[in-house]
Amino acid sequence: MIKPVEPSTRSDLVSYPIRDIVVEAKKLERSGTKMLYLNIGDPAPYGFKPPKHIIEAVREALADARYTGYAPSEGDPQLREEIAKYEGVEPQDVFVTSGLSEGIDFLFNALVDPGRNILLPLPSYPLYLTKQRLAYGPLEFYNCDENYEPDLDDMRKKITQYTKAILVINPNNPTGKVYSRKTLEGIVNIAGEYGLPIISDDAYEHIVFTEEYVNLRKIAKDVPLVSGNSLSKNYVYPGARVGYLAFHGDKWDGVKAAVQRLCNQRLSVNWEMQRGYLAALRGGLDHVKEFNKTIRQNLDVLMKRVEETEGLQVVRPGGAFYAFIKVESKKWKNDWAFVRELLKHGVVVVPGSASGPVNGVYFRVVFLPSADIINKAFDIISRVV
Ligand SMILES: Cc1ncc(COP(=O)(O)O)c(C=O)c1O
Predict the structure, then answer these.
(1) Which of 39, 40, 95, 100 to mutate to test the pocket of ligand 1 (most atoms within 8 A of CB)?
(2) Every domain of the chain and the residues it spans
(3) Alpha carbon 130 to its chain's center
(4) What's the chain's average pLDDT?
(5) How far apart (Å, rounded) are the C-alpha atoms in residues 325 and 382?
(6) Per residue in 257-300, pLDDT tens?
(7) In 3D, which of 57, 106, 52 has the Cα closest to residue 79?
């Protein structure tokens, strides 16, 4: 008899709870529960569209036979040049990837041997946890304080001989926190002291509502820095699947050679979409300003509802489109119990533990949906809490 085909044990290490929750929601939806989705970190389902000049550039590229072959593995030369100008590096320091997700995958492959790790923020974007597990190294996190700023004393304590780099996500997913200059300078000083490079995840660089936003590329001095970015959120075009890694400083030759090999083995990134990214970088940020204005109004509604609900606590996000909300009621065994109860009542959110072993019951919501949907969802959340 032929036995069922066994998956690898390694594949058990892969999880992405943000999408797992959707499977449960869809099941309930099929049996008739109406769902309000506050879980999706994607502007498109909430009616936001990429700006016309980017779509037009993609359309033109689709009609142009020059872009029907494999693109150069490290990226379209003009796009690399434009990114290099933006980042303040040389074109050969830039590698175009299939979304920043692939860039993160390449960084782990190029940097982290088994037993080693990248020091992650807690809470963190879940992909980093999975990649760290797949690297067969210890998951280590630095804590954030009650204001969601990185705790620098804790960061020092968590650095070991196995640490290969420090990750900073600013603005942060899932907290929406925009870090202060003082904190960022502190991180640069620690990295310098321990001789560690910094990975700066800039996926939400332009989605900022605070006065003060500082990008690490401006203050990293001689600390080796790699900036990761993408078309997905900053230009409201996640389906394009284009991102990049930009290496700052002269200490990266070995890693860049490794990333080049990783680029070569997957041949190339969709060329038409790279032309879209080129148009995005040349086209300015007017549409992002509009986008920010709209979601900021949604955020005001969300904040009011959270503040009015007894048993919920949140730190006002300064950027991105997420709020990380604490449930103070002792009623819930854990975040999944709370999130599943909300699901039964038709509200989909992400459990806090998707972002790492946070202490307490948290959930993440997006403020991309309209005020009406946020209000309807909070009518339910405030009853369930
Ligand atoms: C912090 C952060 N980094 C990276 C990514 C990956 O983005 P993409 O692969 O769409 O560029 C995301 C997506 O949600 C994110 O939130």
Answers:
(1) 100
(2) 10-49+286-384, 52-282
(3) 13
(4) 96
(5) 12
(6) 999 999 999 999 999 999 999 999 999 999 999 999 999 999 99
(7) 57
Share of the chain above pLDDT 70, in %: 100
Classify residue 331 as left (phi > 0), alpha (psi -120 to 50) or beta: alpha
Closest CA to 27 of 354, 322, 340: 340
pLDDT attached to residue 211: 85
User: Is residue 350 within a helix (H) or strand (E), and if so which, with residue range?
Assistant: strand 350-351
Selection from 105, 173, 113 nearest residue 138 by Cα: 113
Question: Best of 125, 200, 244 to mutate for ligand 1, by most ligand atoms within 8 A of CB?
Answer: 125
- How many A from CA of 6 to the centre of ligand 1? 31
Alpha carbon distance 208, 316 (integer Å): 12
CATH topology of domain 10-49+286-384: Aspartate Aminotransferase, domain 1 (3.90.1150)
Peptide bond into 123 cis (omega under 30): yes
| 61/77 Cα distance (integer angstroms) | 15
What span, in angstroms and rounded, lies between the C-alpha atoms of 275 and 133? 34
Distance 311 CA to ligand 1 centre (A): 30
Counting ligand 1 atoms within 8 A of each CB, the residue from 42, 129, 173, 178 with the most, and so the one to mutate, is: 173
Instruction: Round to whole Å and give the CA distance between 308 and 313.
Output: 10
Instruction: Report CA(117)–ligand 1 centroid distance (Å).
Output: 20
Q: Which of 143, 145, 139, 135 is nearest to 160 (CA)?
A: 139
Q: Please identify, in words, the CATH class of the domain defined by 52-282.
A: alpha beta
Give, to the nearest 10 degrees, the angle between helix 335-344 and helix 17-30.
30
